[in-house]
Amino acid sequence: MRFQNPTFLGAVASTLLLSTSFVQGVCLHDHRRTLQAGPGSVPISNFSYIGVTGPLGWAGLSPANVKCSTANVQSPINIEHDVVPFSKTHPKLSIPNVRSAEFENLGSTVEVVINGTTIFEGKTYSLKQYHFHTPTEHLIDAQFYPMEVHFVNIASDGSILVLAALFELSLTGTNANLLVPLSAPLHAITEPGSSTTTGPLSFSDITNFFNTVPLFKYTGSLTTPPCTDGVVFLVADTFLPISPKAFLEFKSVLKFNARYVQNAPGEENLIEVAAGQLPK
Amino acid sequence: MRFQNPTFLGAVASTLLLSTSFVQGVCLHDHRRTLQAGPGSVPISNFSYIGVTGPLGWAGLSPANVKCSTANVQSPINIEHDVVPFSKTHPKLSIPNVRSAEFENLGSTVEVVINGTTIFEGKTYSLKQYHFHTPTEHLIDAQFYPMEVHFVNIASDGSILVLAALFELSLTGTNANLLVPLSAPLHAITEPGSSTTTGPLSFSDITNFFNTVPLFKYTGSLTTPPCTDGVVFLVADTFLPISPKAFLEFKSVLKFNARYVQNAPGEENLIEVAAGQLPK
């Protein structure tokens, strides 16, 4: 796993497009909702990462979540270099730069609502949002990292493509450009259910990143309820840098929002494994 | 939660006592074994943190591990300030400084084998070892931290007392004195099953720490197989500092070794909760 060259992440900003005044957000947890753009309140997720509303209790929150405990293709996973192949082709992301975007604290994550298009393996997806997990949901060769970002794309046939990148702590204090404009507005959404608007966002660096770095490819699931399977994951094998200061800022808001790693794709769901080991 | 004052962790070193040439180590996972002191190999734990040998599969590794999936008092937990009380008294630790100690990579953790005595609530415990988890096993008010240390004490009647402290990243690069002498030998035990000997270790800072800072107290379990319950945990409500560099060093060896947070003490084991939600 290589470290992202900071110069590759050099500042870029050019065309700014006005965001639409009404946006439809699609959470990773696949709940559609309509939001009025601008600061305000957003619905809080009904799931958590602790206790009976946490990952071991997600199936109990709704019959719709049954796959969280029964599907044999789930995410996140431990990505072993010797096992998970690289994608033979790169996705082609197009994300218009924006003057501002909605930035929401859903309780389960913080999410930036954007519009874009991703073309991958001949299929066109709409890019809906990106959000963060801390620590990482995916492990790489059994090791965890401080934070992970997911760019969530949905095609017209409902199929889902997630572009994921893991952050590693930068000892020189470097931050990926993706994080820099989120630092100030993050302080405005420390409370679950709150939202704000960002300043200008440019996406040239991150689109160039996903368009060029080696990407692991596997079919998994949403990492949150309803744990829909059949989700294609492209996970970068190059880290994005996060400074210790920025990591502490994100962690103080996200606190802990990583699902435990699942069994390898095709293997029995770990909840069924655990249930089968209970005394008769 | 307060941050440990670095001056409180100022260097101390005085009397050095020779470690015994044969030591009996007691892992947190309660397997007794006899080790010859000095560099060499140590048995590797049969459990992991991933897949069917991970926390959801621990009960399947041995009938002796049944409590991992059935006991209603388990560790780690999410420690909420409003819920978990502070201990009314402090433990009294006595750890002789040593010229060197065994430092082992068990696959599941890295562990320093020492001898000491802890007196708490009128009972005398033998201090056997301390070891590390990354990220933290306990959450504090739902937030995780980069690393946790456990000092494991056992009384003659078999009762277990664990003194735990959470580390937070230091933006000034400070490390708790406990970590400093482990940095060099850590590089000698990057492979599971390897061991080495440390240089001189002094414990005045860490004994003073546990003897004075506020300590949450609750009854939980071993956080590793066989998940023995009835373990008294004293968890410091003051962070120890770890530099980003030291964190990366420990993480590169430990990779990921934190059990998911359990249901609150007295509540149903989360594996039984999950099993009860499976389709009939």
From TrEMBL, chains A, B:
What is the reaction catalyzed?
A: hydrogencarbonate + H(+) = CO2 + H2O
Q: What residues does the Alpha-carbonic anhydrase domain cover?
A: 45-280
Q: Which residues form the signal peptide?
A: 1-25
Q: Name one Pfam family in it.
A: Carb_anhydrase
What SMART domains does the annotation carry?
Carb_anhydrase
Q: Which UniProt keywords apply?
A: Lyase, Metal-binding, Signal, Zinc
Output the InterPro entries linked to this UniProt entry.
Alpha_CA_prokaryot-like, CA_dom, CA_dom_sf, Carbonic_anhydrase_a-class
Instruction: From the UniProt record, list the coiled-coil ranges.
Output: none
Q: What is its EC number?
A: 4.2.1.1
Molecular function GO labels = carbonate dehydratase activity; zinc ion binding
Into which family does the record put it? Belongs to the alpha-carbonic anhydrase family.
**Name of this protein:** carbonic anhydrase
